[in-house]
Design goal:
The radius of gyration is 22 Å and the shape is globular. The strands form two sheets. Strands 1, 2, 3, 4, 5, 6 and 7 form a seven-stranded mixed sheet that branches. A two-stranded antiparallel ribbon has the order 8-9. It folds into three domains: 8-125, Orthogonal Bundle (Butyryl-Coa Dehydrogenase, subunit A, domain 1); 127-227, Butyryl-CoA Dehydrogenase, subunit A, domain 2, CATH 2.40.110.10; 236-393, Up-down Bundle (Butyryl-CoA Dehydrogenase, subunit A, domain 3), CATH 1.20.140.10. Helix 1 runs antiparallel to helix 3 and helix 5 runs antiparallel to helix 7. It has helices at 16-32, 34-40, 45-54, 72-85, 87-106, 109-121, 236-265, 282-313, 321-348, 350-353, 365-374, 380-393, and strands at residues 126-129, 138-141, 145-152, 163-170, 176-182, 188-190, 207-215, 222-223, 226-227. The protein has 403 residues and is of the alpha+beta class. The two termini are 38 Å apart. The chain has twelve helices and nine strands. GO terms for molecular function: 3-methylbutanoyl-CoA dehydrogenase activity; flavin adenine dinucleotide binding.
C-alpha cells in the first residue's frame, strides 16, 4: 500500500463525482495487500494516514476550512467503496464521519463551528468510547470542569484517532454528557485486547477512563450546565445504523467482485458438467446472477433511505417524533436486508469458486468473517420487529441507543 504515485496534495475534489473517484483510488490501494494486512492484524496507522492524505476524512467538513462540503448520501457511498477493499477501514471511516457530524446534532452553535474548523483544517481522525451495553461512565461536577471515570469494552478507532468522543452520566442525575477530548489526553488508556474473528483492524478494544477532566464549556449542547436539545431525541442512531448498512454492502460487493475475478481467472469447470469453462456452468451463472440482483436491490434501497435521511438533516431543529420514527423504521428495514444479503453473498461465493478458493492466500474468508462479526452488533430480529410493529399497529420505534 503506497501513495507515491498520487497527486492528492495538488487538488481537493469539488464535486460528488470527484470524491467518489478519490475514494475509488484509495480503495484500489487498500485492496493490494488487504489479505496480508488482515492476517497480520497490525494497528492501522498507515491506513488511517491514507484516509487523511487523500482528504476523505474531511468529506463532511466545511469548504471554507478545506473540507468537501458533501452530504451523507455521498459519505455512505464512500464508506461502501472503501469497505469493498477493506471492511475494517470502511468501518473506521464510517464511524469517523458519525463522530465528526455528532456536534451538529447535539452541540451548541459555537461548539459546532469550533469542532468542525479544528477537525477539518487539521484532518483529524475521530474515534469513540461510547458503548451503551456497559455500565455508564460516571461524570463528577467539579465546578468549572467535569471529570469522567469508568471503562468501556469497545472503543472503535480510538487507538488510531486524534480525537475521542466520550459519553457518561452526571453523578446523581440522569444527564448524559458527550465531550470530545484529545485521544492522547492523560487518563485515557486504550487496551490492545481486540481479538475477534473479523474487522480485525478496527482497533475496537476496551478503554479505561481515569480522571479525564473537561471544561463544562466542552460539554456538548450544554449551556450553564443545562442541555438544550437541537433535535428530537437525536439522529445519531439512524445515521450510524446507515453507516453499518454501508460497510455491510461494501464488504458484500468486495466479496462478489473478488469471487468473480477468481472464477474468471482460476476456477475450473466441473469434470461432469459438460462445460469447458467455469463461466459457462449453468449453476455458476445462476448463482452470480442471483447474488448480484439481490445486492443491486439492497444498494438501491440503501440509497433511497439515505436520501430520506438527508432530507431530515436539512432542518434537524424541527424534526418531529413521527418523522424521526418513520425514518428509523426505514433504516431498520434496510439494515435487516443489508445484513441478510451480505451474509448470503459472503458465504455463497464459495459455492461458485470451489474448494481451492478456501486457501488462506486467497483471503475470501475475510469478507464473511467481517460481516459476521459486525452484524452481531445488535440483533437483526429487533429491526424486523420495528418494521412489523409499524406495519401492523402504526407504532413508531421508541428512541433508544439502538433505534
Amino acid at each position: 500500500m503506497t501513495t507515491t504515485d498520487t497527486d492528492w496534495a495538488k487538488s481537493t475534489p469539488t464535486t460528488t463525482t470527484g470524491w467518489l473517484a478519490r475514494a475509488a483510488e484509495v480503495s484500489a490501494l487498500l485492496a493490494v495487500d488487504a489479505v496480508s494486512r488482515d492476517r497480520e492484524g497490525k494497528t492501522p496507522h498507515a491506513e488511517v494516514s491514507l484516509l487523511k492524505e487523500s482528504g476523505l476524512v474531511t468529506l463532511l467538513g466545511p469548504v471554507e476550512h478545506g473540507g468537501g462540503g458533501q452530504d451523507w448520501p455521498t459519505a455512505y457511498r464512500i464508506v461502501r467503496e472503501i469497505a469493498k477493499a477493506d471492511g475494517s477501514i470502511g468501518q473506521l471511516l464510517g464511524y469517523h464521519y458519525l463522530w465528526f457530524w455528532a456536534a451538529r446534532l447535539v452541540g451548541t452553535p459555537e461548539q459546532i463551528l469550533a469542532v468542525e474548523e479544528l477537525a477539518t483544517k487539521n484532518r483529524l481522525f475521530f474515534g469513540g468510547a461510547v458503548n451503551p451495553r456497559d455500565d455508564d461512565v460516571v461524570i463528577t461536577d467539579e465546578g468549572d470542569t467535569i471529570v469522567y471515570n469508568g471503562r468501556k469494552s469497545f472503543s472503535t478507532g480510538s487507538k488510531v484517532s486524534d480525537l475521542t468522543v466520550l459519553e457518561g452520566v452526571l453523578e446523581g442525575t440522569d444527564k448524559h454528557i458527550f465531550a470530545i477530548v484529545p485521544s492522547d489526553i492523560e487518563g485515557l488508556t486504550f487496551h490492545d485486547d481486540w481479538d475477534n474473528i473479523g474487522q480485525r483492524l478496527t482497533e475496537s478494544g476496551s478503554v479505561t477512563i481515569s480522571g479525564v477532566r473537561v471544561d463544562w464549556a466542552s460539554a456538548a449542547g450544554y449551556v450553564d450546565k443545562e442541555f438544550t436539545p437541537k433535535v428530537y431525541n437525536t439522529l445519531n442512531v439512524p445515521t450510524i445504523q446507515l453507516v453499518f448498512v454501508s460497510f455491510y454492502l461494501g464488504i458484500a460487493r468486495g466479496a462478489l467482485e473478488t469471487a468473480r475475478a477468481y472464477t474468471v481467472e482460476k476456477s475450473r469447470a466441473w469434470l461432469h458438467g459438460g462445460q469447458e469453462r467455469s463461466v459457462d456452468e449453468p449453476y455458476v451463472l445462476d448463482v452470480y446472477g442471483d447474488l448480484t440482483a439481490k445486492l443491486w436491490a439492497v444498494e438501491a434501497f440503501a440509497d433511497q433511505v439515505a436520501a430520506e435521511g438527508w432530507a431530515i438533516h436539512q432542518d434537524p431543529d424541527v424534526v418531529t417524533e413521527r418523522e424521526r420514527g418513520e425514518h428509523e423504521v426505514r433504516v431498520a428495514a434496510v439494515k435487516a436486508r443489508a445484513t441478510e444479503v451480505a451474509l448470503e453473498i459472503t458465504g455463497g461465493i464459495f459455492e461458485v469458486t470451489g474448494a481451492r478458493a478456501t486457501a488462506a492466500r486467497e483471503g475470501l474468508d475475510r469478507f464473511w468473517r467481517n460481516v459476521r462479526t459486525h452484524t452481531l452488533h445488535d440483533p437483526v430480529a429487533y429491526k424486523r420487529r420495528e418494521v412489523g410493529v409499524f406495519v401492523l399497529r402504526d407504532e413508531i420505534p421508541e428512541p433508544t441507543w439502538y433505534s
